[in-house]
Write a structure and sequence with these properties.
Number of strands: 0
Number of helices: 7
Largest sheet: none
Mean pLDDT: 93
Number of domains: 1
Structural class: mainly alpha
Order of helices and strands: HHHHHHH
Oligomer: single chain
Strand content: under 5%
Distance between the termini: 55 Å
Shape: globular
Length: 161
């Protein structure tokens, strides 16, 4: 059962983990979390690539702690409302094609969602890593990396033909 936070630090961690409320939407919170990541990705794409990756890696670390805290606050192993993992997955996927065509960024996001939902191969197995926050984040990190690499390959394909 979802618990109501009782202090300011709980609200902070839930704000990050639930990506400012997007994870609390009643249907398809992972999809809404992925969509809610797009404005940040759009802003980050306008920065130097090193800054993009530095912020993304920072969010991986912050998100891992936030997911762990949210799990404890909500009293659930992997609360559906936690979508920071989707936010990070989208940022990772797009990070490989920030300077590529817009269609490659779209492919990156779609592939990320596909891998996040279907969890092929090792993506499935890492979701049980401990501590809890690491398990919540790990599958989306792998899904984002795989999606980004495949989108990068697709973006480079026309120049190889």
């Amino acid at each position: 059962m979802s618990q109501v936070p009782s202090d300011k630090s709980a609200w902070f961690w839930l704000g990050i983990a639930e990506w400012f409320g997007s994870g609390r939407l009643p249907k398809a919170p992972g999809t809404f979390g992925s969509i809610a990541a797009l404005p940040l990705a759009w802003l980050l794409c306008r920065l130097d690539l090193a800054i993009y990756w530095l912020i993304t890696i920072g969010l991986v670390l912050l998100g891992t702690v936030a997911a762990h805290q949210a799990s404890a606050i909500r009293g659930e192993k992997d609360p559906q409302s936690v979508v920071i993992d989707e936010v990070v997955g989208v940022l990772l996927a797009i990070g490989f094609v920030t300077e590529g065509p817009l269609w490659a960024q779209g492919i990156a996001v779609l592939l990320f969602r596909l891998f996040d939902i279907t969890k092929p191969g090792p993506i499935f197995h890492v979701q049980d890593l401990k501590p809890t926050g690491l398990g919540i984040m790990a599958d989306d990190v792998l899904a984002g990396l795989l999606a980004g690499l495949l989108a990068l390959g697709a973006a480079q394909l026309p120049s190889l033909l």
